[in-house]
Amino acid sequence: MKNILKFFDWKTYTFTAIAVIGFSNIVIQLFGETIPSVMMTFFKSAGEVVILGSVFLFAVAWLLKAKPHNRPKKYNVVVFDVYGKESKIDGIRTEFKTHDVAWSFMKQYKEMYPLYNFAMVSKQQKLEKPTIFKYI
User: Fold this and answer.
1) Domain ranges of the chain
2) Phi, psi values for residue 97, rounded to 5°
3) Fewest CB atoms within 10 A around its CB: which of 18, 53, 83, 98?
4) Distance (Å, rounded) from C-alpha 112 to C-alpha 118?
5) Would you call 116 exposed, middle or buried from its count of C-beta atoms within 10 A (0-12, 13-18, 19+)?
6) Backbone angles phi, psi at 69, to 5 degrees
7) Is the separation of the CB atoms in 118 and 106 below 8 Å?
């Protein structure tokens, strides 16, 4: 019986209790402040690297994809009849230097001649056939 009472005596566990309390303070410090601050610093830096890297990759991809536009210096309006065959209408202007003016004249011609269709074309230097830009 005396051994059992000695087993439950608080004096026996004093050193153990002090060690547990001291160790728990270290564990709380370690897992509560030290590890989270290290992890936050790492992930903050890693996040910055990922964002800056994606911006850089987007900029490089955009620069590689973007190429200078070769705008035509001359536009022609081609007239098509109801059957889709190329035809001519006397008295209309068919050669233009700018895209906007050619488009404006095409809209006006479509109102004046509703049975005809009009295409704005330009001959590019690299291509053999003229390129149709607009068709109404």
Assistant:
1) 1-67, 75-135
2) -95, -25
3) 83
4) 12
5) middle
6) -85, 130
7) yes
At 34-85, the pLDDT tens digits run 888 888 888 899 999 999 999 999 999 998 888 767 778 889 999 998 888 9
What is the C-alpha to C-alpha distance for residues 16 and 110, in angstroms, rounded to an integer? 99
Q: What share of the chain is helix, strand, coil (3-state, %, to 5)?
A: 55, 15, 30
Residue 26 to residue 32: CA distance in whole angstroms: 10
Identify the residue whose tokens are 């610093």.
Answer: 41
| Whole-number pLDDT of residue 77 | 92
| Helix, coil or strand: residue 122 | strand
- Give strand pairing partners of 131: 122
Tokens describing residue 73:
């210096």
- pTM over cut 0.85: no
> Chain-centre distance of CA 115, in angstroms?
44
Q: Do the strands 86-87 and 131-135 form a parallel or antiparallel pair, or are they unpaired? A: unpaired
Task: Say how far apart CA 123 and CA 72 lie, in whole Å.
Answer: 8
Give me the pLDDT at residue 99, please. Answer: 87
